Amino acid sequence: MKKLLITGAHSYIGRAVEKYLSRWKEEYAVTMVSVSDGSWKELSFEGFDAVLHLAAIVHRSGSKNDPDQWPLYERVNTTLAIEVAQKAKEAGVRQFIFMSSASVYGLDAPLGKTVIITADTPLNPKDHYGLSKRKAEEGLGALCGKDMKLAILRPPMIYGKGCKGNYQKLAAMAKKLPVFPDVGNRRSMLYIGNLTEFIRLILEDEAEGIFCPQDREYVNTADMVSLIAHCHGRSILLVKGVTWALKLLRPLTTAVDKAFGSLCYDPALSDYPRDYQLFDLVQAIAETEN
């Protein structure tokens, strides 16, 4: 039986992984621990096969480039991750799985342009979150070795039932708007059901390295909004030829580039010897919305 310790007891991904692995009660035992205070230091890590470190501060409102907020990001996202890994290593844990982010690349996708992340793309984070994750990766890389394998995950935007963030904003529009811009963009995204299977596989394989899991197909924003509307018994008119209007809006809000830019992982980055992409977009949206 694999024994997994998950840090981030209240995290969206942590709860999803715990629920998913509960399907195999005789193969996996999952323990969740909160690291919001120092009580985790009293927990013995001995006997665990792996630690999945999810605890992190993401983008706090108005803080992503506020110099006064950097110590908090560094303390939680960098220092804490290394401290947890050090304790795991001393306890004989064989694998440390660290949830990083595509933010370590520091890339945006302007409307009308396509940005593809490849194996040669340098790390160049542009905000506190991305920088703190990159520094954590560096510290963990120096700490781990033959005694404890390190798996770093850099997922794109994660979505699924109960998720937060930009997906919910698009879903809200899909449930209300009669029309939506039809822009031919492409985005790498990762459905929570595909992520949980990926984590199960790398846990089973005791895999190490840097991984960029993503859904099998790129997502077009208009197609996704249309699918969400359909799940709620609505039809939404997709309107072409409005890119000029979106370009006028770009200086006023970053939402235009986030929704309609093309930011993708090279598919080769997301290859894994075993299939984790169990859900296509239609299935993923149906599971999320229903």
In short:
This protein has 290 residues and is α/β, with parallel strands linked by helices. The chain has nine helices and twelve strands.
Written account of the structure:
The protein has one domain: Rossmann fold. Helix content is 36%, strand content 17%. It contains 9 helices and 12 strands. The strands form 4 sheets. Strands 2-1-3-4-6-10 form a 6-stranded parallel sheet, with helices on both faces. A two-stranded parallel ribbon has the order 5-12. The chain is globular. It starts with a strand and ends with a helix.
Low-confidence stretches: none
Structural class by sheet pairing and helices = alpha/beta
Q: How many strand elements? A: 12
Give the CATH superfamily: NAD(P)-binding Rossmann-like Domain
Distance between the termini: 33 Å
Which percent band covers the strand fraction? 15-25%
User: What is the CATH level 1 assignment?
Assistant: Alpha Beta
> Could you give the order of strands across the largest sheet?
2-1-3-4-6-10
Number of domains: 1
**Corresponding CATH architecture:** 3-Layer(aba) Sandwich
What does the largest sheet look like? Answer: 6 strands, parallel
Shape: globular
Question: Over the alpha carbons, how many angstroms does the gyration radius reach?
Answer: 20 Å
N to C succession of SSEs: EHEEHEEHEEHEEHEHEHHEH
List the helices and strands and how they pair.
Blueprint: E1 2-7, H1 12-21, E2 28-33, E3 50-53, H2 70-90, E4 95-99, E5 114-117, H3 128-143, E6 149-153, E7 157-159, H4 166-174, E8 179-181, E9 189-191, H5 192-205, E10 209-211, H6 221-231, E11 237-239, H7 243-249, H8 255-260, E12 262-265, H9 281-289
Parallel strand pairs: 1-2, 1-3, 3-4, 4-6, 5-12, 6-10, 7-9, 8-11
Helix pairs in contact: 1-5, 2-3, 4-6, 6-9
